[in-house]
Design a protein that fits this description.
Layout lengths: L10 H7 L25 H9 L13 H14 L3 E5 L2 H12 L5 E5 L4 H13 L3 E5 L4 H7 L6 E5 L11 H10 L3 E5 L17 E5 L13 E5 L1 H15 L5 H12 L1 H19 L5 E5 L9 H7 L6 E6 L2 H10 L5 E2 L9 E3 L11 H6 L6 E5 L5 H18 L2
Parallel strand pairs: 2-3, 2-4, 4-5, 5-6, 10-11
Antiparallel strand pairs: 1-7, 6-7, 8-9, 9-12, 11-12
Amino acid sequence: MSTQTTHTWRTATRLLHEARNRTPYSETSDSLFLTSGFVYDSAEQAAATFEGTIDHLQYSRYGNPTVDTLQERLALLEGAEACLATSTGMGAVSCALLSHLKAGDRIVASSALFGSTHWLLSTLLPSYGIETEMIDGRDDEAWDRALSRPTAAVLIETPSNPMLDVLDVQRIADRAHKAGAIFMVDNVFATPVGQRPLDFGADVVIYSCTKHLDGQGRVMGGAVLGSQKWVTEKLQPFARNTGNTLSPFNAWVLLKGLETLDLRARTMAHNAAVVADALATLPGIQRVIYPGRKDHPQAALVKKQMRDGGSMIAFDVVNGKKGAFACMNSFEIISISNNLGDARSLVTHPATTTHKKLTEEERAALRITDGSIRFSVGLEDPEDLISEVTRGAQAALAVGS
């Protein structure tokens, strides 16, 4: 769906009032159309719909009013021409890649990727005859070398999962375009209210809507945003014909989540900043990585392209895996879960969960240690979260005593 806005409303207002798409009943809340199909007034109308000579809904795998509303609102928020919603976040990643790439093509990606995305690039794409090169996304010279020859696509996460590398979107975009590549950015950790990669030269932005956009741990979903031409000609035919479609109910739930996204994202970022500073002072904590801190390796870049530090923290405890497990098991408020972006604080141990399938050498290259913990900070009172991590740090220390 093509979108444009002339509104000067600010983000929080836009999330509530843009792309209303009300029915003749003038409902306050967004409508939920739980239907698999649509009827036609005549056989001629059905034929014209399939020919594309008239605009009429066909089937909810192809289009649904509730899903359309979500796509339009996300596109307006992102500043994109078009959006396509998918069944999951990984569905969004796989749709974006597989709709664009073919045998003989080449993709370059930052090696700091979510585990399932890493599998797509390291295992699936090569099996289809697609060349994959993964590099350290922080290394400018590595980008110069990798993009010195023709490339079909470039993919990065920024901040990355789980160790929060922040990559220079504008610099990479310039190199990608010179190599002839479409440039895709997974923007899940930053959220669309915290960072807009299209403003810095990205061509495609990818989301797992399951995370912050829902924010309540209720439903799964994904979204891919880009130009109208690319979405219509590349992405849409692939998604429609392979069945990677978001359900209307999930779309409706995500629309409810979007209404509070800006409020939640701001509060969670504030909480994360406070907790990260507290973590850095605790005995038993070896390392704290938070984009909002001055000691983050890319702190200047964070200020350039992000609104704030976001809701994600990575930290290392003493005594390796035993220390990490003791720390996590001591929590009462913070839950152990491989999800993130929830209203409730969540932690996971990347080495044994999200990045388990990577080799030890690959994890080491990404600076994931046995003591690393990924912390998705929620909406709890930050003082309660500080009490939790203080107890966790003490538990990690006690393992070695």
